[in-house]
Amino acid sequence: FAWTALNQSIWSWKTEWYVCIGVPFFLLVFLIGASIYVGLSSRNYHVNDEDREWWARLGAWIIISIFAWVVSCALVIFGPIALLSSPKIVASLGGVSGLIALVVGRSAKTAANSKDQAKAGKASALMGSLLPLLALIFVMVFLSALSLATTGMIQGIARLADHVTRDATTAYIDKPVERTCAFEWLTNVPDPPGRCTPSDGTTSAASTSPPPLHGFDRYINYIYGGINAGSLDGAKVVHMNVLHHTSLWFLLALLSIMVIVGVALAKAINLNVFSLHGGYRNRLIRGFLGASRPDGQRRPNPFTGFDPKDNLHMHELRPTLLDEGDLLNTGLIATALKSALESKPTDPLSAYLVKNHLPEGVRNELQDYQPDNAVPAQLIASLRATLNSVLQREDLNLAAEPTLQHYAQTDRAVRAQRAIAAGPRSEYRILLNRVIMEQAYPNALKPSVYPPPPYKLLHVINTALNLVGGDNLAWQQRKAEPFSISPLHAGCYRLGYRRSRDYGGRKSNGISIGTAAAISGAAASSNMGYYTTSPVISLLLTLFNVRLGWWLGNPGPAGNSTFTLGAPKYSFKPIVDEAFGLTNDHNKYVYLTDGGHFENLAVYEMVLRRCHIIVASDGAQDEEYRFGDLGNAVRKIRIDLGVPIEFSSIPIYAGPESKDKGRGFYWAIGKIRYSRIDHNAQDGVLLYIKPAVYGSEPRDVLEYKENFPAFPHQSTGDQFFDEPQFESYRVLGSHIMDRLCGEGTTPLDLYTVVNKAFKQSREAAVLTDAPFIEWLENWLSENEPR
Predict the structure, then answer these.
(1) What is the pTM of this model?
(2) Collapsing DSSP states into helix, strand and coil, what is residue 119?
(3) If you average pLDDT over residues 516-528, what whole number do you get?
(4) What integer pLDDT is reported at residue 127 of this predicted model?
(5) Distance of alpha carbon 101 from alpha carbon 541, whole angstroms
């Protein structure tokens, strides 16, 4: 490629254009021939619809291949030329378009799909349509820059090889020189016979005149030419010469090295931790779980402010396990175990635990422990984890141990054994083991309150399993399915469930509540289920690691070898699936994001579990009160589970109270028709709560509403609430609960809350449907606590 070529029209570069259109032209000829064959065989009864569908699908893939070939070759060959021709304009265009796509692409004001664009304003709809184009422009500029960078890398390797092979008798390329062929594989410019140094190390006969440049010398001359010119035009010549004259073997060797390095990095880098989600998860743990711990228990790092003990494992939230506050006297337990470790047991349980169930790490911590000193925080956490591990062992019954049988004679232990005999329920088995521990360590463990009453809530965290690349025709619009994580199990009803103690990291005691909560809040992601907008934007977000989401093993049969892992063994395939929208539920790993990417209220999972009183608090951004999340939940529950949810009225609206609309309410009551799908089942009640401002709220809330009209439906993209904003939401929530439940301090059960909501709705005449009222009265009468 000569300097003079730069002064010629780009259309005269025949070799380059042949590379770009040669293969597509061949494929196009084949496609035309196939089309003619399909047309001529259309009356042949031996060629059926299935054959024609196969040819049509093949034709589509040929067209895709033609387009991909032309675009990729043009970007690799001509993209760097365009960059070097107008570097400031092209680079600015690519950078600005990419920045806009990244920032605006996940803005709460940007429409997520065509239906939302129709509802949005013209500016928002226009921006939603332009985003894929802006992202595409950036990707094209990025790939062109990557091609130019590859040229620079090959040029650098060649220059390094030139210096390495030059010896004391070697001069620069414009002087007589004898070269070896050690690096001839860098170039496809051949050497004539006798040009290279013989294998015995002797040099060829001296020439009376400087030999012509061949092979590696000539290749070096090609790539040095542009540098010596010191101009952008010289860089263009270098780029084209690298494309023309670099050896295929060298490119294959370079590709092999990059693949090896890539595989090593994919093995070494944790895809979940090395992302925006990792930092997001840590801050949620500190901001919520850390703030929930009692004063004096946290021992955060003085530099970071993080305390690893803030996070709990999901399985530790089981009703019968030991909470952090259940260890009333850890020093007593530690002293008893230390004595048993020194062959001086003070009680039979400590001797049994030391003999059978005490991990090596805990043994070392107990040996270092001095009973006269305070129990270290690490030892407290280790003891709780050890005791909970013993409680959960399925093959362990402490009451059957000969040395512990006398602890099983208490009334609570006898009742637990009767419950176990009545039915195989794991919670009663764990309760029996805990009762034995409580008897062995009196005044050291808080007595369990299980079985209920009083009740202990079972946390169920709602997430979404992305199916952007799934092949379920009925779910092609959803692009996601529900995925729940509880203290008992993690998974979904279509694939199956795994125990939370094993799922997401068996070696680390399973998935943690911090990880599960961060997944449930992973709203801004490259794959967003139903809200996935454009494959190009997904590629861009993945490329820059602007992604909230978590890769875990498939809970179904496909993940039999991966569900116990905390992250994929190799990050390459999952990140490619994420970038190109290929996530599904058939692979070994699944991609989990915000539950709102399937159903935002988590009512779906509660109906699936046949809960008879469900309270749903809708905090979604919905200034016009269209109740989109409620409609989405009702629709999917009816389609998938066959359970209709009916509302007589929803007296929640925007704006102050008026005579036309009546008294503004914050809630509505729905009927869950379990009887439609379950024979002789009792229907349930859905209490739907949604914030609104009617004018009767506290003065500071109304003042904030006047200054910020979007309140209480401000964008969730704002992750930095100031004090007035946070307090306004808190006070409004407290006001709503006071209106619903009354301002008393007596704890209320869910039945009483539903009863109060019903009475107020009927008194205010916002609930007037006689059949619905009669049904709800009967339901309250049948379910009144005795």
Answers:
(1) 0.80
(2) helix
(3) 85
(4) 54
(5) 9
